[in-house]
């Protein structure tokens, strides 16, 4: 009888010890699980924040891409305008050179006629008179020379007007080219700023992407630890039953 009671007491004591050990193990594992769950929740919150920031930066990068493309297109158009104006200026300068040569030639011819008619009138008069077969022929020749001189003067005035118009056009084209080149320089600066901003944005996105990957790896590790602890808790529960 005493022996049976002693055995019973031993069994009770051992059972109590097992229960205590089991309780301590379960409590410890649950505490670990709770700590990991807290860390997991914080990591998920950080990941969500990073993903939101990453999404916003990707959208901004797309906008920068569009702005850079638009700015480059505007630069291409400006370059086309500069090339067109350069061609127009070159053609205008050639036209001006031809007109100037024509003007100089007419001026030389007119000067020669005026010198011939006005600086040596007696000689001219005598020459025309001697070469004329009649008074009518003399007058006709004389007035023909005067009309020719008047024609030269009118032609010279016409060419002079053409020259003035070409010079005015040249000035307008030069001013327009200067304005377009200034606009081009301003657009180039803007494009460079946009490109630099885009490069910085891409670098920041790469950092956010790396951070996102690190957080995701950390979350996977937390989930693995939680699953491992839950498996240990289940195993302790099964062992305690058996």
List keywords for this structure.
0% strand; disordered N terminus; mainly alpha; single chain; 242 residues
Helical percentage: over 70%
**What is the typical, i.e. mean, pLDDT?**
77
Total number of helices: 3
Q: Which parts are unreliable, with pLDDT below 50 for 5 consecutive residues or more?
A: 2-22
How many runs of DSSP E, i.e. beta strands? Answer: 0
Shape: rod-shaped
How far apart the termini lie comes to 28 Å
Structural class: mainly alpha
Please give a structural write-up.
- Helices cover 98% and strands 0% of the residues.
- The chain is mainly alpha-helical and 242 residues long.
- Helix 1 packs antiparallel against helix 3 and helix 2 packs across helix 3.
- The chain is rod-shaped.
- The two termini are 28 Å apart.
- Residues 2-22 have low confidence and may be disordered.
Summarize the helices and strands and which ones pair or pack:
Blueprint: H1 2-119, H2 121-131, H3 135-241
Q: What is the structure about, briefly put?
A:
With 242 residues, this protein is mainly alpha-helical. It has 3 helices and no strands. Helices cover 98% and strands 0% of the residues.
């Amino acid at each position: 009888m005493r022996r049976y009671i002693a055995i019973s007491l031993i069994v009770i004591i051992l059972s109590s010890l097992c229960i205590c050990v089991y309780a301590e193990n379960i409590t410890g594992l649950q505490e670990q699980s709770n700590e990991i769950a807290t860390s997991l929740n914080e990591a998920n919150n950080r990941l969500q924040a990073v993903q939101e920031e990453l999404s916003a930066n990707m959208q901004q990068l797309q906008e920068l891409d569009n702005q850079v493309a638009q700015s480059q297109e505007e630069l291409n158009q400006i370059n086309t305008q500069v090339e067109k104006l350069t061609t127009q200026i070159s053609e205008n300068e050639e036209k001006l050179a031809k007109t100037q040569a024509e003007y100089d030639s007419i001026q030389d011819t007119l000067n020669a006629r005026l010198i011939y008619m006005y600086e040596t009138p007696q000689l001219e008069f005598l020459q025309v008179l001697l070469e004329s077969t009649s008074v009518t022929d003399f007058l006709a020749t004389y007035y023909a020379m005067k009309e020719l001189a008047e024609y030269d003067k009118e032609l010279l005035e016409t060419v002079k007007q053409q020259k003035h118009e070409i010079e005015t056009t040249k000035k307008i084209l030069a001013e327009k080219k200067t304005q377009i080149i200034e606009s081009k320089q301003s657009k180039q600066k803007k494009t460079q700023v946009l490109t630099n901003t885009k490069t910085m944005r891409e670098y920041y996105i790469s950092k956010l992407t790396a951070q996102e990957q690190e957080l995701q790896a950390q979350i996977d590790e937390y989930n693995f630890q939680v699953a491992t602890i839950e498996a240990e808790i289940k195993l302790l529960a099964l062992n305690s039953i058996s």
